[in-house]
Amino acid sequence: MKLNVNDREVTIDADPAMPLLWALRDVIGLTGTKFGCGVAQCGACTVHLDGEAVRSCITPISDAAGKKLTTIEAATNGTDRIGAAVHAAWVKHDVAQCGYCQSGQIMSAVAFLKSLPPGQQPAPDKIDAAMAGNICRCGTYARIRAAVADAARTLA
Amino acid sequence: MLPNIDYSELPRAAQRLMARSQTGEATTLPRRSFLKLAGAGGLALGAFPHLAMAETAAGGQTISALKPTEQPSAFVQIAGNGEVTVTINRLEFGQGVHTALPMILAEELDADWSLVRSRHGSNDAAYLDPRYGIHITGGSQSIKNSFTQYRELGARARAMLLGAAAARWKVDAATLRTEAGTVLGPGGRRLGYGELAEAAMALPVPEKVTLKDPRDFRIIGRPTPRLDARAKSSGRQDFGIDTRLPGQLTAVVARPPVFGARLASVDDGAARAVRGVRAVLRVPLDRGAEGIAVVADGYWQATQGRDALKLQWDISAVEKVDSERQLAEYRELAARPGPRKLDADMAPLATAPRQLDAEFVFPYLAHAAMEPLNCTVALTEGRAELWVGSQCAGLDAAAAAGVLGLKPEQVVVHVQMAGGGFGRRFSSTSDTVVEACVIAKAARAAGLNAPLRTLWSREDDMRGGFYRPMHLHRARIGFDDQGKVLAWDHVIVGQSITTGSVFEQFQVKDGIDATATEGMRDPYPLPMRLTVHHPKLNVPVLWWRSVGSTHTAFVMETLLDEIARATKQDPVAYRMDLFGDLHPRHRAALQLAVDKSGYGKQPLPAGRAWGVAVHESFSSVVAYVVEASVKDGRPVLHRVTAGVHCNLAVNPRAVEAQVQGAAVMGLSMCLPGSAITLKDGVVEQSNFGDYTVARITDVPEFDIHIVPSAEPPTGMGEPGLPPLAPAFANAIAQLTGKPQRQLPFNIDNKS
What we know:
The structure holds two protein chains of two kinds. By secondary structure, chain A is of the alpha+beta class. Chain A folds into two domains: 2-74, Beta-grasp domain (Ubiquitin-like (UB roll), Roll), CATH 3.10.20.30; 77-155, DNA polymerase, domain 1. Chain A is built from six helices and five strands. Chain A has helices at 20-28, 72-75, 81-92, 102-115, 124-131, 141-155, and strands spanning 2-5, 8-11, 46-49, 52-55, 68-70. Chain A has a five-stranded mixed beta sheet with strand order 2-1-5-3-4. By secondary structure, chain B is α+β, with helices and mostly antiparallel strands. Chain B contains 19 helices and 28 strands. In chain B, the strands form eight sheets. A seven-stranded mixed beta sheet of chain B has the order 9-10-7-17-14-15-16, sandwiched between helices. In chain B, helix 3 packs parallel to helix 4, helix 15 packs parallel to helix 19 (724-736) and helix 18 (652-670) packs across helix 19.
């Protein structure tokens, strides 16, 4: 079947029930999207379908048909204004420790900032609520908060 | 993440244990100082040892008496364009050694920091811990043990570059100086390190070098962004799980419901019929268990195959641990006599004016690192290559060799960036690596000549054992009206984590595992009798970030706080009095946290209370002053102010991150649902839905301060964890009037 992955047409031969996560990682070879729990509890696998954050570990390939799938690789490659701002803030605040969950954290942050009216600065509790689905076992949360707020400021 | 005691005997014994893995290729470093590197962007200073092997045969030799761990060739590579690549002898799994070790080397090399890169080593002998003589990432020891090593490596490489410049300009090397990747000579002459690397290669490695005066440090001590920050903020950082080799297959394992159980019957017909499944293999597992490995084109296909298996297990021969029954047994055990670690006179207990009796319960805890366990194995005739995020590459290589019937020098472990670990990637039985090798070998025997990645699901990882052990503590304390402790009778019951591991012979003495008692009593001058029981149970246990201090710090710091409150004393003043003049680092850390927090000066919002704790682990001291409240029966941590004493902070920005992260992991221990429990031998939790780890909504504001020091650095991977839970608990006790004596917290004191 055909998928639109990062603005590229990709044809893959796989069971339509296969989760997007494994299509990306094992079939297409985009490994920036991470496997953390397999049951949508940790957010490490977060990608965007038509701009909306979804957990790719429980989203079958068939759900992506006719939609634009965006992964961490494209969101942070400089072509997307909000993605670039979040990436820059993550680097500036030295957020990552082990770094494994950060693809998902960034994808959640980008989707959150895209959901805000232009120029709006999110309140701290709104940032927490938006990021509550993403686990970081290293405990980088304080810097995640700072980075999301900083990215929002740079976008204003 | 590893035992926090004197390892002075470890190198000899561990090297005996590892002797098999330390022969031949693995120890034969190039005798030439530097080698030409193919495909490395021109000529380079330094070389990978394994790569070097092929190129040394014909070369001229410069004999050096230096050990492999002292050879710049194994650690520094300088490309023609001036890029300096530093190889780290540890696993980077979040703690920041991928940046801090290069900082240390670059300092003495006088490198241009903007051109410094970092990469992992292997199980090569060059990457042994210079103090312990084994490959090890743990015990918060990476910086502590490799500080001088990496300084000397940098200084040696610099001396050779100076020598090359001196020869080029025909001047005395003593007239030259270096600055940011450049050698500066008389008359404004200058040469970049990249231009000198080839000539430097021909020079011998100096044995003796002079190190900088710490006052001249310009990289060490400067808050420095991580070298891996960009890659880790863009999905470009590969971890072990991302290893992709041509033709690679993936295996998942159907594991027994009870540790150590075997298969009674197998119906794999449906599994074999799943699209993408290539093999279904019955394999031996850790602890004498059996399982079924399903090998498929990818992880999802493999799990589809696993789901289609019809298995019956024989659990009759294995002990089926039940947490409730276990607690009752621990209570019974605590009342019995046992071996004593400390043996003060308990006579004053009977006559002490005040008495305090307390029981503490701590559950099993899973490491739950975000990257599930995995190991990729490629077998060819007489050789194995492994890609794995390993905290113990040498021991894992030796274990792999044993399974594969190879000589240890035929096994190469490519250490991969790991998504957390917290101790789990140093398994006492190398279980992850052994399992992957068993499956790879079976797959090859079944005709599958492909690299094989064995990948654990989250459920496999969480139910797979190797937990921080469950513990019961019981204390009976007699003290006077001034809070002076007259006698403290203490009992600890819990499984020994080092029994059966490489550390057993040094850690377990007279029936007591030192890792179970670390953090007890000291540094407080208390008359304590400490009895320890180590029951044996069918639950695999392991070190877990900050090891014994995960429970001992909680017990010590909450009980002392309780005595202070009972005798109407300020908890800070009470501790300071006990420290006296003997523990200046404890005093300094606590005072800094107190000063910066506003404790005792600044009024708190209604409903909040202060909580204080201080604890030394792994040679570093961390003090917390926290603000907490109880909202709808749930404890809330608002603010954490830290005072940290780790001597010289190599990268203060990383120290801050480690304290924040360790505090969050300590906070996790307090939250409802942060426990692994067993029922009829089966682990009851399976994923993040029923095993709580802290989320962003649980996390306080942080304010972290480091006590200035120029003393040689101590580690910071773990010491931020132990004092968080007791500081939080002490604040909760202030608010509720009831002490917290278990983790996770039990605010309503429901049993």
